[in-house]
Each structure stands twice: as structure tokens, then as C-alpha cells.
Amino acid sequence: MSLHILFDLDGTLLNFREAEYDALASLFNHFSMDSAEENFQLFSQINQSQWDLFEDNLVTLTQLRFNRFKQFLEVLGSDLDPSLVATYYENQLAQGAHLITEAHELMGQLHGKYPLYAATNGIEHIQTQRLAKSGLDHYFEKVFISEAMGVSKPDTAYFNHVLSAIEAEPSDVIMVGDSLNSDIYGGNQSNLTTVWYNPHNYELPIDIDRRPNYQIQHLMQLISILP
């Protein structure tokens, strides 16, 4: 039996918040927009709400990419073209290769001992570029990006596709991620062993379907869980 490990990317191995901040800072400068801190927070909130809708299958990825900037620009009272702004933002975001602390150390220790895979909800060209720039790409045997697959976490169809591609049984797979919805709930629904990366030490959810088998506050703590 071989234990297979799936890793979420944003918020687990890649620091999305820093990448998002840098992309927005560049965008605000490029389009001569107000770079007040509250505008960074405003976009982050709108963006997260759109991703939540996407994970619940209430908007498509195409709608998400447009809607987040349409809503953001409307709140700011800007007449900029949302599509133009979205394209610029995505190109800048693709340059964001910031890492979560201990990401390289953990992957270096696991590589060669276990088959490792990336399992991410995201836009293919952005995630592919960020992985390459981060230097994490060579650790993974396969990378599963929702846009390329046509289905996203937490949908069981996403995990069924992954299990088929890696030729593994659910009992032989661990899902590691920071999202209680896409990673933990999704993994639980597909009968995977789930590990919640919880660096802020949030309380465990009441909902049993979103309770992980394990939780860690630091990435290197994963080592102690593995056989």
C-alpha cells in the first residue's frame, strides 16, 4: 500500500494573501486608483465571497472572474472596464510565488517518500505559473487544477477524478488543506483522511462533516501524523 498525499495550494503551501496584495498594489498604481488600505480589504472580501459562491456551484469561474471586479468597481464608483482590470490583475497575480512558512522544508522531506499531488481550485495559467515560480512544482507527480478539470472542490466529482488519475483508493489518500469547505468537507465526503492546516488555531466546527481527522498549526507537524 502506498500513501498518497494531496495538498491544497492557496493558504496551505502558497501565501495567497501576499500575492493578492502585491497584485492589487500594482493594479491600483497602473490604473491610478486609490490605494487606501480599506480598498485592499474590500476587494479581498468581494473576492472571497465570489469563491464561496463558486464552490457552492452558484457561479461559474468565468462569472467569478468578471463579477469580483464589476462589484468592486461599482462600490468605488469607477467607470473602468471590469474585464480590462480583471485581465491585468490576473497577470499580476500569476507572478505571486510567496510561500507559507515551512512549505519547502516539508515538501523536501516528503518528496521521494510519498507520492505528492497538488489539488487546487483556481485558474489554470495563474496556478501553473505561481507553482513554477515558487519552485514547488517539481515536488508533485500531478497537479489538479479545477479550471482544467471542469469541476472544483468540494464536489465529489473532483475527488473521484483525482482518485482515478492517481489510481488510489480513498483509504490510501490524505487531503491537506486550510479550507474547511473545499478541502475538509470535500475530502470527508469522498472518504479521504483529512488534515486541516489551521495556523490561526480556530475552533473546530460544530458540523461533523467539516471536522478533520487531524489538524496542524505548522506544516512540519504533518510529519508526526504520517506512517
TrEMBL record:
Source species, domain of life: Bacteria
InterPro entries reported in the protein's UniProt record: HAD-like_sf, HAD-SF_hydro_IA, HAD-SF_hydro_IA_YjjG/PynA, HAD_2, HAD_sf, PGP-like_dom2, Pyrimidine_5'-ntase_YjjG
Keyword Hydrolase: yes
MF term (GO), any: 5'-nucleotidase activity
Keywords: Hydrolase
Classification via NCBIfam families: HAD-SF-IA-v1 (TIGR01549), YjjG_YfnB (TIGR02254)
Record's protein name: TIGR02254 family HAD hydrolase
Source species of the chain: Falseniella ignava CCUG 37419
